[in-house]
Structure formats: structure tokens, C-alpha cells
Amino acid sequence: MSTRGKLGQTPSQTVGPYFAYGLTPSQYGYDFASIVTPCMAGPEVEGTHIHIAGCVFDGAEKPVNDAMIELWQADATGRYPGTDGVNSRFTGFGRCGTNADGGFFFDTIKPGIARPDDAPFINVTVMMRGLLLHAFTRIYFSDEVKANTHDPILALVPAGRRSTLIADHHAAGKYRFDIHMQGPQETVFFDL
Amino acid sequence: MLDLNPRDWSSQPAYIDSGYRSTALRGPTRPLIPLKPALAALDGPVFGHELIGALDSDLTRNGQRNGAPLGERIIITGRLLDEDERPVPGALIEIWQANAAGRYIHKVDQHPAPLDPNFFGGGRCLTDSEGRYRFLTIKPGAYPWGNHPNAWRPNHIHFSVFGRQFATRLVTQMYFPGDPLLTFDPIYNSSPENVRARMVSHFSLDVTEEGFALGFVFDIVLRGTHSSVWEKA
User: Fold this and answer.
1) pTM of the predicted model, to two decimals?
2) Deepest of A47, B1, B57, B127, by most Cβ within 10 A of its Cβ?
3) What is the pLDDT of residues B44-58, one digit of tens each?
4) What pairs with residue B210 in β-bridges?
5) Other CB atoms within 10 Å distance of the CB of residue B24
6) Cβ contact, residue pair B170, A10, below 8 Å
7) What is the CATH number of domain A12-124?
């Protein structure tokens, strides 16, 4: 079994400091329509509507004001958009650039699970100036204590680092999820 | 069942690169946690044609206010392929770039080169059934940056690409053949020496339109797939 094809993979490069007007233009007031926004689920989408907010920090614990976060998630029944039966108005995909304080947010729904052993989670891609290759992580939820204990992917993560993947449910419908690129609280990133 | 080929780490830059200063505090320092292909397999988002505006792939027209933008008109085209040369159709490609003078419309860019009132610098399209894409734009200028004394970015266009799967996501930069600045650019040189040329477009007289625009070809290669090994439970 070979996992190498005839052509070589194109190398990754940093998204750089100037992606905003191309990838998240509406958010920053540029005259070009965004095709992906942080508002992933309107009121017509079934499920528990949630607001996730957080900050991106560099290795000096300074906020990163030029990062871009993308989310990709299942609907409330655990199925991804594009699958039969999923509300076509739920995009499942969101994108947000960070503000001057390193902050980002998403308005979405809490994902369901596809397999009984999984805990609900959201796929996350992190990009920024100074990051030559995007980083993959996941958002799990602090109010899913039992499900989190048997999730097969959380189980791969050393126990002391799992908390970096768990969004804090601090108020009704509201979660906090910070991303630390380095340092004692460095977020767990996956190779997939 | 098809599994996604792994990221070819010999084709990718390291997270911390001593030549590119901003990586020092931003690249992850702990080893990534590997996920088995079966756990990582996940189709990515699908984008419909209704999202793409009529002028989105024509950067010479989508920012016009009172005339045509300044600079050399160029055509950038190519195919989005996987490692086995299979085309990736219906994939979203987004680009952004500086104008002919080397100035981005981005509010943070303070390089004292002129903005062009008729050039925005952002575009997007979906690949066709053969994985092809095509943009008409203006050749971007080089510009200085603060990484080290007398640092200049080579002419380049940023590309954001989605493949079929979530994990085939790619953000890269396309360069131009024969650019003397490539030798000195830490971002270009962050990629291993034997793979850097994959990011350099080539000039094509066939793509060039007589009397109108120079043509450049840039093929993009994403991770491919292979049959998964059958394992006993």
C-alpha cells in the first residue's frame, strides 16, 4: 500500500497579515461580500443555539489580532451539512477573523453526535500571520462531562492537556474557548 | 473505503522557522496528536455556485470605480489535483493580493505606495468539472516588510483552497518565475528546498491572450486517497 502519489503536495504558506479583505471582508467593512461568516445558524435551524467566544494568544500571552478561525460541525442530529436530511440553511461552516483584542465569536448550534461513544465537538482550523501551516484543533463542551470521558479522541490526549479542548459553559447558551499557540496552556493541535 | 493520505511533512514548512521572525511566538511547540485516518475522515464543506458573483474571478473589474486598474493584466489558471492527478471539481479557491504598486487595500498596510482606486485585490471561484480555475487580475508588485533589514516580499498571490475533505484544507502563496527576491524571502524559503518550486507558477504563451494579458499556470496539489487497510476488530 503506497500513500504517495505521482505528484507532490503543494506546500503550505502563512495566511499573512492581509487576509481580511479577501476571506472575511464584510466583517471588517470592506466592499466585498463575505461568503462565510461567524453566524452559522439562523433561527430556522433546529437545535440548541449557542454563542462561542474566545481569544487567540501567542507565546508571550499577547492577543493575536490577525488570526482567522474556521469551524466545521455537524447539525443537532450529528450529521454534517451536505448529508441528506440536514437543513440546507445550516451551513455548518463558519469563519471569523480576530479583532484588535484577539477575540473571535461564532453563533451556531450545539452539534449532535453520530456515534454513541462520541462526545459532541466542533472541528477548528487556526490560521494567522506567523503560522506557516494551519493548525487543527477541536472544541468540546464543559457541560458534557460524561460524554467527554468516553470520547475516543479526547482519550488520545494526555489527561493534563484535555482542558485546552473544552469550552467553558459560563452562562446559558454561552461558551468560552481560548486558543493558546504556546506556553503552559498550549492548545492541543491534531495531525489529521 | 478510502483514507486520506497523510500530510507529507517533507513538503511542509516547520512551525518555528528562524528566518521568519513571527513564527517564534506563534507556531505550536508541542508535538501534534496524530489521528488515525478512520478517525480523521470527514468530508469538508461544499460551496454552491450561488455564492460566487459574476465578477468574483475578474479582479481587473470587480474593484472598478472610474476606470481600469493600473498594471500588467495577467491570467492565472491551473488545475486543482490530488497526488494521483485526479482533478478536484467544485472546490472553492479564494485569492487576495497587492496591487501593481505593491500596496494592499488592507487598512493595516502602511507601505507608502499608492492605492489604486480601481483595484480591490480579492477574488474567488469554484473549480470546474476538470478541476480548472481561472482568474484575470493585475500582476502584484513587490513590497517591503519588517522581518529583517531591507526585507522585500517577492511578487505573490495568496491562495486559500478547500478540497473534498476537511483535512485537505490548504493556504499557500503563488510566486512568479525568475523573481530575484525569491532567494531572500524567508516565507518562500520556509518550505524545504526541493519542494519550493511547486509554489512558482510558469509562464505560458498558450494561456497568454494576444494583445491583452500574459498567462501564468499554477497547478495545486492536495493530499490524495488510498484504500484503507482492512483490520480485524
Assistant:
1) 0.96
2) B127
3) 999 999 999 999 999
4) none
5) 15
6) yes
7) 2.60.130.10
